[in-house]
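Need tokens for this chain, all 474 residues.
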Amino acid sequence: MRLRTRSRERGGIAMSVVLHLSVVLVGLSMTMLTVSSSSRKEYGEVNERVACYYVGEAAIAHAVLSLRQGGDGVVGSSSAPVSFGGGTYRTTCVNEGANLFTVTAYATVRDDTRALRAVVRRSGGVFNHSMFAGNSSGDTTYSMRFGGAGASADQISGDVYSGNDIVVTGAARLTGVPRATGSITGASGQTGVTQPIPDLASMDYAHNHDVNVAAEFAANATYQPNAAGGSAWQVPQAMPSHIFRLNPNDRSSLTRATAKHDYFLEDPYQPVRVDSAKNGSDAYMIKLSGSPGTPGADANNKVYYVDGNLWLDNYKTYSLKFGTTDAAGTQATFVVKGNIYFSDSLYLSNTTTDGVAFIAMKDPAVADSGNIYFGDPTYGTLLRMQAFMYAENTFYDNALDASGSATVTLDGIMSAGDHVSVNRDFGATHTKLTLNYDARVANNTLHLPRTNIPGIGGPRLDYSVLTMTEVSPR
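Here are the structure tokens for all 474 residues:
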């Protein structure tokens, strides 16, 4: 009896333990199911917020694209948002001035809405700046410098850009926005900025041009004297390249110092005029005729490709001027695979309709190429230039301390892929540079042949995101 009783007691105890264990296991299972369900929910919410953030980034990119294409940066609306990535978005955009925009993106994925706010800066290539130096060599010591005191102080209108530093001293005045990859000293501007450098290689100017000057001279030139100075090779007036003379012998001291043939921009079929007032009022004309039946009828609105050096340096005059019979004015682009030397003043007949661009390209076979040399080292006759100028390599001065070049004025742009190295400080004296920015190409009111080079800016402005932060969507 005692044995059977103890056995029943032991069985009751075992059943109780099993029952208690079952209750514990069920409780644990329920807890695990609750935790698992909660984790899945939290995991889903995290994924939803991440997805919402990415949709917001896509919205910012869409707004920047709108600005680049000439829009106002506003994409979608509260009633008609843009569908993307399993969610929707819309943006607002506020023009803050000084080339800055505030873009706010509202992104929604299922039940989650997030807002991102970006500060976007508008910038452009060389045609959007009065002075541009890309610093393609990566020189960490390069500085774009402005200075002078009193009446000799530099006066620069339009934005300027340096691929390294900008230094402003004395009474120099910059009325545009200075931008630099490095530091800016002596002026307020935007630092940490990187601008694209023109991709000249993509233009393939050696094949994409209207007039191959060297080829026309090789096939048609004769050597003859001219009132423009000495004897030189020249082509018939009916040809577009009649506005050049090749290797004139009265300037052999200049041509002997270069590695390539030298083409002088001067029209042997126009009367030589001295322009004694040195202001372009009686300048030596370079005629780009465009009317049918006139000499050189197809000379206007062309790209002139020069495999050699190009000079504006004539001993008989102080100034040259472009002109045409076209009612629409003069438009021409001179692309030089070599160097360009500007020693005399250059004027346009009509500053509303006329425009010329000079582009100096590097020649891989010639170390000294792709440069623009600015100034007359002997007579100091360079006083004013009206042109858009870009050197793939460097923009140099050429003895701007000469007494005749105590002041130099440029109406247009002064730009380079590497440096603008125009040294105008000589002891206690400073040659004043007045740079009047010509915005006609940038604002699309002047069209110069084949100057819409990738990275060069042209009429296209670029927009970049400076900062992006999350803000309350309310």
